[in-house]
Design goal:
Strands 1-3-2-4-5 form a five-stranded mixed β-sheet, with helices on one face. Helices cover 33% and strands 24% of the residues. The chain is an alpha/beta fold. InterPro entries: Thioredoxin-like_sf, Thioredoxin_domain. Residues 6-77 form the Thioredoxin domain. Pfam families: Thioredoxin.
Length: 102
């Protein structure tokens, strides 16, 4: 994961707080997905350091996966549930991950 350039038109942003146990579990799922694909897929933001962003985007809780596509917030995912659940969002918003380049 890496820090975000908020001016980008497309991104999937993982929002967390450092002392949140559920955030740590969610991060483990995202790290596993990135390790399988061997690339950075998710950007990250510490909610505690970005209160204006949290307010402007009406982020209700952490962890949150904020999905921005075509310069518009498309979804905010608060319940990560499982790796397959996260993949359902990736198939919708990052289909290029699933193209076989062989």
């Amino acid at each position: 994961m890496k820090d975000i350039d908020l001016q980008k038109e497309h991104y999937i942003l993982y929002i967390y707080t450092p002392m949140c146990g559920t955030c740590a579990l969610a991060r483990t799922m995202l790290d596993k997905i990135e390790s399988v694909h061997r690339e950075t897929i998710f950007y990250e933001m510490n909610a505690s350091l970005n209160p204006n962003f949290m307010h402007e985007n009406k982020i209700e809780s952490v962890p949150c996966l904020l999905i921005k596509d075509e310069n518009e917030v498309k979804e905010k995912v608060y319940a990560f549930h499982s790796i397959p659940n996260i993949y359902s969002y990736l198939m919708k918003y990052k289909p290029e991950l699933f193209v076989n380049n062989d």
